[in-house]
Amino acid sequence: MDTKINKNKELNIWEALIPVVFLMLFLAYNIFFAEGELFGAYSNQIILVVSGIVAAIMGFLNKVSANTMVKEIWHNLKSVFVPILILLLVGALAGSWLISGIIPAMVYYGLQVLNPTIFLPATLIICSIISIATGSSWTTSATVGIALIGIGTALGIPVGMIAGAVISGAYFGDKLSPLSDTTNLAPAMAGTDLFTHIRYMTLTTVPTYLVTLIVFIIISLTIETNGNSDVSEILNTIKTTFNISPILFIVPGVVIGLILLKTKPLIALGTGIVLALIFALFFQPEIINSLSDSKVTALFNAIFNETSISTSNEKLNELFSSKGMIGMLWTILLIISAMIFGGIMDGIGALARITSVLLSFATSAFGLFVSTVVSCLGLNIVASDQYLALVIPGKMFKKAYEDKGLAPENLSRTLEDSGTVTSVLIPWNTCGAYQSGVLGVGVGEYFIYAIFNWLSPITTLLFAAFNIKIKQLVSSIKE
What we know:
The chain is mainly alpha-helical and 479 residues long. The chain is built from 25 helices and two strands. Helix 8 packs antiparallel against helix 10.
């Protein structure tokens, strides 16, 4: 909320857009013509940094000091320090929950309860409930999301569909939960209170969610899966490979319980890792011995390195593998590169310039909603951070909404409908990079199935276009 918006009168809109155009062109070329390998495995990271250099050149040409840009980069990097630590812990969590049998147990029992006919809508609902309870889409994906990916994969459901259902549910809860940071940030930026914001947001969020649920029900009834006939074989393989017991669910239960008690995520995830390692020693001694001659080495590798557990089923061999903390390095480097680019763009005043131009097109109430949505989407792409996508438009558009006689909850709802939920649709955004890294599914694979996320800004614009539930300021009505 204390984020300062950097403005630069020297910088014109065309100069502000040059780094953005450069970034978009190179990313497009890398994706469509170089198959993501323009500069090797870390092509996207390099493109983001080079685009940051282009932005820095624009800054130098417009009297912005290197010190100003470095300060903004440092500010951005500090803001993602905890998320990076969470990513590392999630990598360790996946490895420790694998060798302890927790993930195999989730898959084992999940296969007996969830079948392809109800799997996608059930995934959506489960993730919605967990996310509302925890207030965190990230935590939801890192716990039940990982398990549901495993169960759905074993059932033969395309992984992009599963991830889309997980993310749709996770962000529905993240939007409406009073425990969510973005749900608290949006009304603070717009000038309304938390529960007024949540009540007003349900007007667009609930219809979007219902459409999403209906689509997943239709998909579940129509898709062909190849996992039905193999379920008994898969169940038998899991049970003969691991020591499966309901007692293993104590660990995820403790983690979710700690989160509900508002324990810091680092402590909750760290506790989950330690407990899983202890359970691994007691419940899976044969697995530990098969991985290494030393128990300590096996546990160490589960946390930090790649771990694979071989079974007689090829589908399970792919499922029962984890890359540990080291598997998160690509995602972490992507986030750092995005923060460098976003920091320089903010430091030279480009973000403020682009947003101010969008604001100038808001000559009508509907135009104001459109400008807000475009601004949030643009900042998720350019600044690579959902918080900036809420803060900058929130601060810059607040007065415009007042001038149009619109209640502040119109702004707070639009910020969430277009800023919070679309962040996960951008591969280099912190949210997109995180979800892709945790679930092991590329943004391109789940994009079309993250229905709730891309439908939300469309819904908010439809409400604005047809003047549905657009609340006016009380003082404006009296006048």
